[in-house]
Structure formats: C-alpha cells, structure tokens
Amino acid sequence: MKINDCHNISDFRFLAKKKLPSPIFNYIDGAADDEVTYKRNTESYDEIDLVPNVLRGVKDIDLSTTVFGKKISLPVYCAPTAVQRLFHYQGERAVAKAASKFGTMFGVSSLSTVSVEEIQKISNSPKMFQFYFHKDRALNSDLIDRAKNAKFDVLALTVDTITGGNRERDLRTGFTIPPKLTFQSMMEFALKPSWFINHITSTPFELPHLQNYVKEGTNTVTSIGEYFSTMLDQNMSWKDAENLNSKWGGHFALKGVMSVEDAKKAVDIGCSAIIVSNHGGRQLDGSRAPFDQLKEIVDAVGDKIDVICEGGIKRGTHVLKALSIGAKACSGGRMYLYALAAAGQKGVEKALLIMKNELERDMKLMGCKKISDLSRNNLRIR
Fold first, then answer.
1. Which residues participate in catalysis according to the annotation?
2. What is the residue extent of each domain of the chain?
3. Is 228 in a helix, a strand, or coil?
4. How far apart are CA 346 and CA 335, in angstroms?
5. Closest CA to 158 of 131, 191, 195
6. Into which CATH architecture does domain 3-381 fall?
C-alpha cells in the first residue's frame, strides 16, 4: 500500500504499522489497561444517527467556524501530541505546514520535538500551546514566556495527567523517549530500515522546551508514564490553573475536562474554552467517552465558553454529530499521526484533505450549507 491508496484513517493506520518499529507504532496506537475507553471513544458516535434534510440548495458549503476568537477554515484541528519526530523525521514541522495549508489550528505539545520559535516561522494559522504543569516552577515560567513571545494564540493546560496511565503496550514493547538501544529495539529498527536511517541522519532528537531544565526525554531515556508520574506536579489545583490563566493573559483552555462540575469551575476561573477529552483513552480506562459527555457539558456551559470535543474522531460524520450537539469545534491526534508516520507532510495533507472532502460531502447530504445549520434536530439516539 502507498499513500495514494489511503482513503481513510484506517488505511493510514495500516501504512503506519508497516513503516514504524513496533514500539513506536504501539505508542501511537495504544491506550490504558484493557483499552475499553479507547475503543468507546469512536464507538460512541455510532449510538447517534443523522437525519438529513433535502432540497436545500447546497452547492456552496462553508466549513469555517470560530473558536478562541479565531476563524478556522475547518471545524476540526490537529490536537497537540508529544514527540512527533519519533513518528516521522519531519515531525511537528510537517503538521504545522499542513494545518496552515488547510487554514486550521495546530497544537504544539510541551513535549514537542520542534520549538515554538520555529513553529512560529513556518505556520501562519492559529496555534495552541499545550502546557504541562511541572514541579519545576522556573520551567513552567519559561514555557509560558516562550509561547507568549512566539505569539501563540491559545494556552491549553492539560489537566488529566496528574499521574501516568497504565499503558501496557508500552511496557511490553519497552517504548521510551528517546528510543533505548537494546538488542530487542535494534532488531525492531532493522526491520524498518527507512525509519531508522531517517531517524539517525536527521537533526538530533531533542525536547527543546525541556532540555535546559530536565534531562528526561532528551539525554536520559524515560517513558511517558514515568515522565507524567515523576516530573509533573500532582498537587496542581484550581488555584494553580487560575494563576496560570492570569499569567498567560490570553485565550486559555483546560484540556481533559469530562464532568459538568469541572466545566462550571472552568467558567468561574475565566477559561475561554474547555476541551472535552480523556487523553485518547490513554489515562483512566473505564472513563466515559467525550462524545457521551458532550451534551450535558454543552447544556451546562455552552452559552458561556467554547466547548471542543476531542477523541475517537475518524470520520467527517463524527465531527458533524459533535457540532450538532453543540461543540464549537473538534480535534484529534491519531487522525493525523498515522498519516504523519505514513508519509510526513504529504500524509498529513492527505488526511486533512480526506476530512475536508468528507465534511463537504456530508454537509451537502445533510442539507446544511454552513456549520450553524447543524442542530440536534438532525440527530436521533438509536
């Protein structure tokens, strides 16, 4: 299979699995414990059916929406994910350029392998910086200052990683950042020579936002679970989030909100938005799917702040269902990470093009010309 043969996310996943060493593919593909929540994230969309209207004159479709006060051309954006240069040597550079081409937002992780300063130079679309609250307060201040100086539009505090999830696939494969050279890993790399050659011949792997403060992840190998459990501040509180919002002074979101109670508190501390997410099923297995929680959260706070639905999105119809419930936009990670691993920037562009084409076609079939035409009137619970 080649990139031209990829017509959906499952095709990109198949190609990524062929190209990546097993530990790295399973890091993208895996989740916590029995991966029940991971599966439910997508299955939840199947519980709701679309009811289309006809004869609405839908030749011209407007897919744009406004979130964080910024207009984006697609109602779905590339969520921030860590260590992207492990998946493809172009890493975050590829995703930033592809998102800019499609006029949508791109999220950059604290554990990014490309700096916010470089992303600023290559991206002209709205940008989100995803913030992990570390024990090291000097590191926290530096992260804020760098994102602010790079003119990022949004700071999103991740609140669902107070400790690392039990990612058993990573335990079985020995996945670390950077990759640890062992007999087993060298055998895996030998089976994927193009990935290995690109990895060792491109610029050295680093975590530019962290390397001046911590060795873990750049000079010292670690797992994501270990990093969350040892480097992040488990005493992080609502007061800390409020202070962070004040220090940032711009659009601010909490990423990982799943309850109405927390959504209301987010309003109280002045958030611009909340991202309804369970970290792709990678933290608390058995937790609810974002789409399952979306209605009650929108009903509680949707008239006060932007509500974004993140998790399990594989089809344009998934996005339309979330928007019909009342989400202002959707975001996803695996929906573009498989494509990044499969073909770099070209892969991400193809994945976004497929999503754009699906959204345009499905909007026409729904009898809707613009995002505001979508409503709960077009949904039925199965």
1. 279
2. 3-381
3. helix
4. 14
5. 131
6. Alpha-Beta Barrel (3.20)
